[in-house]
Amino acid sequence: MKGFFQHTWVKLIAVALSLSLIAAAAALVLDGTSAPLRGLGERVSRPFSRLFSAAAGKLSQGEDYLKGVAALQAENDALEQALAEAKQAARTGELATAENARLRSLLGLKEAGQDLTLTAAWVVARPGDNWQGEVTIDQGSEEGVRAGQCVVDEHGALVGRVKETGKTWAAVTLLWDGAFQMAGQGTQSGVLGTLEGKLDLLPQGSLAFSCLTQADPVQVGEEIVTFAAQESYPSGLVVGTVASLTTDPGGLTRSAILTPAADLHKLSEVFVVTSFREDR
Fold it and tell me: Up-side HSE of residue 20: CA atoms within 13 Å toward CB?
């Protein structure tokens, strides 16, 4: 727009200037002649001089207008930038609040005598079928993630164990997968058993606490936690609650069917226990 104004008014000024010069020349030629002829030259040049002055004034007004538009545009850009920064600050504040809430939940682990080093990770992939309880997270060996480490949710409930790692990713075997197995213990009965996923329990989202004798006083509703028999993972991580008890084939042993404490259907952010120290 600015170029259009300048181009148009420059043309007008050029025409006016040319005509004024012609009129001025005519006046010079007629200098020394009779007064009527000199008056004629002045009358001829006067309109073009006025046109020149008007054109110059219009051009000045046009430039002032463009300067005003540019100033308004700059002010608008500044306001948009300030608004974007305010929105970003609000989002950052919300994320910080959510992070603090998660950390407060995890502080309960240390209060229970568990000094854990946790590495936060996001679930980035899930299997495409219903017969594999495995997810992929976005942290790997570069962040100290190793095979065999436990993975918990924001409440400290066990999610599964790391199966394998790359530099920037890791595969996690979930509690209900047929390949999952580790030692567990009842919090009320103190009974030790084996936590294991089973294919027949996978569709219902459960796992087994097996190798129990008929005399073991495990009860429905009892909470089951991890037990570090060889200290390769921490004890006391909440696994789930006994939903039912079944007698194994042969009738010599029993198994407790557990409902996981973690919501494995809605995993998003998880925490890898990269190191731990237990108070004995």
Answer: 15
Three-class SS state of 43: helix
Q: How far apart are CA 161 and CA 273, in angstroms?
A: 9
The closest alpha carbon to 59, from 3, 132, 102, 105, belongs to: 3
Torsion sign, CA atoms 212, 114, 171, 123:
positive
Q: What are phi and psi of 108, to 5 degrees?
A: -60, -25
Task: Measure the CA–CA gap between 47 and 54, rounded to whole angstroms.
Answer: 10
* pLDDT per residue rounded down to tens, the chain (280 residues): 544 445 554 554 555 555 555 555 545 444 444 444 445 455 555 554 555 555 555 556 656 656 666 777 777 777 777 767 766 655 555 665 666 566 656 666 655 556 888 999 999 998 766 567 899 999 999 999 999 999 999 999 999 999 999 999 999 999 999 999 999 999 999 999 999 999 899 888 999 999 999 999 999 999 999 998 667 789 999 999 999 999 988 888 999 999 999 999 889 999 999 988 766 5
Q: Rounded to whole angstroms, how far apart are CA atoms 263 and 265?
A: 5
Neighbour-count burial for 56-76, b at 16+ CB within 10 Å, e otherwise = eeebeebeeeeeeeeeeeeee
**Ramachandran quadrant class, 231 (left: phi over 0; alpha: psi -120 to 50; beta: rest):** left
3-state secondary structure of 168: coil
Chain mean position to CA 194: 38
d(CA 111, CA 212): 30
Number of H helices, E strands in the chain: 2, 12
